[in-house]
Write a structure and sequence with these properties.
The complex is a heterotrimer of chains A (193), B (141) and C (803).
Chain A: H1 19-23, H2 35-38, H3 46-69, H4 77-103, H5 108-128, E1 138-139, E2 142-143, E3 147-148, E4 151-152, H6 154-192
Antiparallel strand pairs in A: 1-4, 2-3
Helix pairs in contact in A: 3-4, 4-6, 5-6
Chain B: H1 6-23, H2 28-48, H3 70-101, H4 110-113, H5 131-134
Helix pairs in contact in B: 1-2, 2-3
Chain C: H1 2-22, H2 26-30, H3 32-43, H4 45-49, E1 54-61, E2 66-72, H5 74-97, H6 105-124, H7 128-147, H8 153-184, H9 189-194, H10 200-216, H11 225-228, H12 234-244, H13 247-260, H14 264-287, H15 291-311, H16 315-346, H17 357-360, H18 362-376, H19 382-393, H20 399-427, H21 443-461, H22 463-470, H23 494-511, H24 513-520, H25 528-551, H26 556-576, H27 593-609, H28 613-634, H29 637-658, H30 672-699, H31 705-718, H32 723-731, H33 733-756, H34 782-801
Helix pairs in contact in C: 1-6, 3-5, 5-6, 5-12, 5-16, 5-21, 6-7, 7-8, 8-10, 10-13, 10-14, 12-16, 13-15, 14-15, 14-20, 15-16, 15-20, 16-18, 16-19, 16-21, 18-20, 18-21, 19-21, 19-23, 20-23, 26-30, 27-28, 28-29, 31-32, 32-33
Amino acid sequence: MTRQAGPRATEPDASEPDATAWRDWDTPRDSWLRTDDARPGWKRSVLLEVVARVLFPTVLALSLYLLFAGHHDTGGGFTGGLVAGLAFVLRYVAGGPAELSAVVRIRPPVVVGIGLTIAAAVAIAPLAFGTEPLTAAVAEPVVPVLGKLKLATSLLLDIGVYLLVVGVVLDLLRTLGAGIEHQRARDRAEEEG
Amino acid sequence: MYTVNVTMAVLLAGLYTIGFYLLMQRSLMRVVLGIMVLGHAANLFLQTAGGPPGDPAMVAAGVREGMADPLPQAMALTAVVITFALTTFLLAMAYRSWVLLGHDEVQDDIYDRRIRELPRRDSGPDSFVAPRESAPQESLR
Amino acid sequence: MLLAIAVHLVLAAVLLPLARRLGRWVFVIAALSPAVTLGWVLTRAGPVLSGEAWSESIGWAPRIGLEGALRLDALGLLMTVLVTGIGALVLVYYAYYVKPGEGGVGSTAALLSVFSGAMLGLVVADDVFTLYIFWELTTLCSFLLVGGNGSRAEARRASVQALLVTVLGGLALLLGFVLLADAAGTYRVSEIVANPPSGPSVNVALILLLVGAFTKSAQVPFHPWLPGAMVAPAPVSAYLHAAAMVKAGIYLLARFAPAFGDVPAWWVPAVLIGGWSMIFAGYRALLATDLKELLAYGTVSQLGMLTVLVAVGERTAALAGGAMLLAHGLFKSALFLAAGVLDRQTGSRDIRELSGLGRRMPVLASGCVLAVASMAGLPPLLGFVGKEAAFEAFAPGSVVDVLILAGLVIGSMITVAYGIRFLWGAFGTKRGQPATEVRAPPAGLLLPAMIPALAGAVFGAATPLTAALVEPTARGLPAGGEPYHVALWHGFGLPVVASVLAITGGFAVFRAQPLVRRLGGRLPGALHAQHGYQRVVTGLDDLAHRVTGRVQVGSLPGYLSVILLSVVLVSGAGLASGVPLPDDWRWWDNPLQVPLALFVLVAAGSVISARRRFTAVLLTGVVGYGIGALFVVDGAPDLALAQFLVESLVLVVFVFVLRRFPAHFTHGGPVRALRWRNAAIASGAGAFVAVASVLYSAARRHAPVASREYAARAEPEAGATNVVEAILVDFRALDTVGEIAVLAIAATGAASLILAAQREPRQPEPEVETTSGAEPPAEASAPSASENEVAEEEAAEQEGVSP
């Protein structure tokens, strides 16, 4: 554990009640890179780790953009989901399973299930309104800052697809990545021990 | 109307040939690579069937002539994703085959091969002994 | 009628569970449906016999003219009376025939019920397909009934032979029906008969129909299955192989004869084969030593005569045919049932073993005498009436008539001879043989055996009854001269002379049996038809064995080669035969396509020669990226983006899996000769695809409408200006939903394959001295790796703490 403890004040400062807090306000509370814990089965590269950490939010933002821009520009649920998945892949390649587990709190099959459920719901919901399945509706609400938006219910299907693709990639990382690694570690431990 | 141009035709021929050749190999990894190459070739075929190269299919400025055909593109996209799913599954199978058997070769089917040596029983229907009855106990390998 | 058939089938289903409780009395219950049907049909007899047929039909696909049509007319009525009457009797007989406690009664009763329902359907079917379906249903029932429970090899063999021969005939029948219906323009039998078509295809159809009838009615050369089917119990033989199933062929001939009786392709083969069967099978009956075998050959012979009578399509002959149909059904079933009684009571049905039974079982013997007398054509029995009509029908008018008459007379002589042989063999007292031990049979066995014989006598004596039943079947047929009426006595004429000649000649033949046998010994062996069947079946098996052994060698590359070759050859042949050549071919559409294509080809070519796994994988990834670039050039940005992303992801997945494998490919590759073969086949297939792509794209005349419509509708209906996206999530959203389902399934499958590989039963871990203890195989979830590390550290710390 690399908990960077800041320089501790030896005497309690009663006169400055907030001195400690003011001095230590920029001390990192949690580790920025988890790679010390992880010890992946391959050589580490500092450049890769730092870049991965920096790029990760940006790539996720790009994937969201692709998801929403799909109707009018290149993009769509698939490409958005794949880009998001690749972001997680980058993180995994940089830091190993521990790095990934720090970010991903939901189990991947659950994400897959949610995506599939959304897609199925979008498919079946129009039946409740008396039309055929998978009929889309277009709405044009006026939002204060952005102006007139054009939204279609097929965007929900896109979101379902996005979630599913992300879940699939995470699942692959879990099994083909961490799973195989764990097996190799165990086999090596068996040979030695 | 629109004929596939020679370059594309040659490319398709080459990719399909290589894909089929890889498919007929012994190593499962090579077979998976063959399936991937075939998948690429098929997607290219699908897309090329759509017509000559054109502008992207965006109708923000209205439907224009010279726009590329959107339907094969959509189908090819579906095909790309499904080929990806298939490849992943096959790789998992190759891995498992490696873990269990120690190799990743596609084995011959012994029982099929033994049909040629089926003993004869007698004349009339059922003149050959069914393979089940004639096969001695054999190990998997 | 539909209700009657349905009742039969439903009753069959009900009988199976009932059998457990009722035992052999299920047969009596099964006999109810034929009996009730008989009663119902007789109430309808009046109008049907006077000319108005009773029709029912179920519309199945009316737009293409397919409907299940049923029609009860005079011929159908005659057959129904025979089928249901004998059916009821046989089922009651069966209840007494089975030994108490014998298994399988439920299934036998059910099968017999199904069979009688199917037979009923066959004779009232008015639609060619309905007829065919019931025809094959009877074949199936016969197969199952003859085979029994499949425990005896000879029963299996006989049932398979019956099945193969009759199904072959059934297929020929179907083909003939289709050709005939095509030529006539309608599927209704009654309409085909009313307006018969003609032409070369009709002649072929008629020959096929004849083949179907001959296989079903066991005519030469298809006859061996009938004597072979005698391994079935006697009641089954009496019902199926005497009264009902084998009559189906005769019924078919009688049904179509009014329309085609004068077509040479119809009556010439029928007369030739029927006549020859009559004489030949009769001769074989003289050689038989098993009672049932004798009766079987006798049936073949009688059916031959019926074929001749019914197929010529002339009124008197048809009357004779109808009368003989009824007579044969009655006397043959009586004889079969009697043979069953003998078999059950004495334990044998071999002529050489039975002796002195005439005195011990007088009732049975007298019944058999009546039946045989009808078979021989003695007055005043029904057989005599029929034979008189038969001889009258072929009263000499032309050479053909004389020949047929001569054949009929000879056949009748032999019939008389083997009839007497049956009586002597079953009931006679043989010199030098002790009397056979026999128990008295129960009344339940005797009555059903006697009733048909008595009925034959009744029908013969009360000719108005017979005439009322039989004459309407011949309505509408051409009659030479004045119309003939069925009666006992027509005055001294050729028919009477012929009958007397037949009867006396028959006696003489019976007396001179050894001479006859020696005479016939020079004929080609009677088993030749059976040998022919065996040789055909063995040959087929051999051929199948050889072809399979050569083609199915068990190696995947081999199978792939076969598949590819077939695709190339078959489709290539089709392609080469008339697709127009393109006239507007270009080298490229966009200059960038050439370097990109070259790049992709070089990369793909290198994949083959790559020795290391990683190199091959990377090169395949390069191929994917190149294809993506081509998509960009083509103007498909969405597709290109997806291709690049998927390719990267696939590379990542490959790398993950490759960590486990050795660096080089272990298997070098196939043998050199095989390598060339694979390369040749692959290049052939590749070239085929390229040529097909060029030719097919050249053959397209118009731009596809669907794409234009989608582009036009994207904005208003889907609210999207990216048409590809609109297609994916709106117009063809179902495909997308399916596609993501496939993704989910593949991921789940891969997960279970990988994770299950961990839970293999391993050797029990040896007790390790370290404090961390044996690591149990754990779930491969990401946090657990770090957990183990943490656990080890803590254990190490504790170790450090406690010395």
